[in-house]
Write a structure and sequence with these properties.
mainly alpha, two-stranded antiparallel sheet, 3 helices, about 5% strand
């Protein structure tokens, strides 16, 4: 199933601006953002609420003794992190309501970042289909 790309109203690809609230929908201008507001509102609101929940859960974890974020590999095995990780999954689910390539890319990036799965990058082709890409070379850390 191909996902549309570009402006949420006209599909224009150049000079796009992100919705400042959800950061998942793209528009070519304020006029199209306003025109699309009613249709976009529920997904935008869900994404905004999910981001707030993540911030709240992260603050709660950072308030715990020790650095709980150093357990990258076993993060899910720590029961204190479950609500934090569920909040991240809820955000990706909410972003799924924005049926655009840019939202799909943001979802994949977020999940890869949270799971540490940077070894097998996924690219979205121009027609919106997911396809595996060749491993990208990453520069050595300084």
């Amino acid at each position: 199933m191909a996902h549309p790309s570009g402006c949420g109203v006209c599909g224009k690809q150049d000079g796009l601006l992100r919705c400042s609230s959800c950061k998942a929908m793209m528009y070519c201008g304020v006029e199209h953002q306003i025109a699309h507001r009613e249709e976009h509102w529920s997904a935008c609101s869900a994404i905004r609420k999910s981001r707030f929940a993540i911030e709240k859960e992260e603050q709660a974890l950072r308030g715990q003794p020790g650095d709980i974020f150093r357990f990258v590999v076993n993060f899910w095995t720590i029961s204190k992190t479950h609500s934090y990780m569920r909040a991240h999954c809820a955000l990706c689910n909410a972003m799924g309501c924005v049926n655009r390539v840019e939202s799909l890319i943001a979802q994949v990036d977020r999940l890869m970042e949270e799971t540490g799965s940077h070894r097998a990058p996924i690219d979205v082709s121009r027609d919106g289909d997911l396809e595996s890409s060749r491993a990208r070379e990453t520069p050595p850390l300084a």
